[in-house]
Amino acid sequence: MNTTHKKTGTPIPATKGDWREQLTPEQFHVMREHGTERAFSHPYHQEKRTGMYRCAGCGAALFSSDTKFDSGTGWPSFTDVAAAETVTKHEDSSYGMRRVEVRCANCEAHLGHVFPDGPGDTGLRYCINGCALDLDTGDLDSGGADGNTSG
């Protein structure tokens, strides 16, 4: 795992205590304890500005606003990742459900889940906790080495 902040180059937290100091209580619960924010509680579910959605923990470019859509679920939803290597996927069988969890590949923060019911070419819906994201409106083209958002 890379241990530096993708945007600033500074080290990312190594311990739970370090993460607690960096993140809000809600972010810590979601990103480090695999929690979920309440639906419709974060303004990013309605956000319309253009930009790159970055990991709130490490700054890694995760989702372009070009792939964002209104799923009606109350969480920011995307049809694709900024680049294939930006997230990892893990089987999640918690709460008696079978889902695919999505984590930041850089800092392993829990972001949300991906479902096979999205629109467009991918058919995917990345349902992401808004508090796990930071919208960077000045850096749309930094998803990968080539800026490709079709991951």
How would you spell out the order of helices and strands? Answer: HHEEEEEEEEE
* Gyration radius over CA: 14 Å
Oligomer: single chain
Mean pLDDT: 87
Q: Low-confidence stretches at least 5 residues in length (pLDDT < 50)?
A: 140-151
Give the N-to-C terminal Cα separation: 20 Å
The main sheet comes to:
6 strands, antiparallel
Strand order of the largest sheet: 3-4-8-7-6-5
Tell me, briefly, the overall form. Answer: globular
Beta-strand percentage range: 25-35%
In total, the number of strands is 9
The computed structural class is alpha+beta
Helix content class: 10-25%
Summarize this structure as a short list of keywords or feature phrases.
151 residues, single chain, three-stranded antiparallel β-sheet, alpha+beta, disordered C terminus, six-stranded antiparallel β-sheet, globular, 25% strand, 2 helices
Description:
The strands form 2 sheets. Strands 3-4-8-7-6-5 form a 6-stranded antiparallel β-sheet. The protein contains 2 helices and 9 strands. Mean pLDDT is 87; it is low at 140-151. A hairpin with a 7-residue loop joins strand 3 (68-69) and strand 4 (77-78). The protein is of the alpha+beta class and 151 residues long.
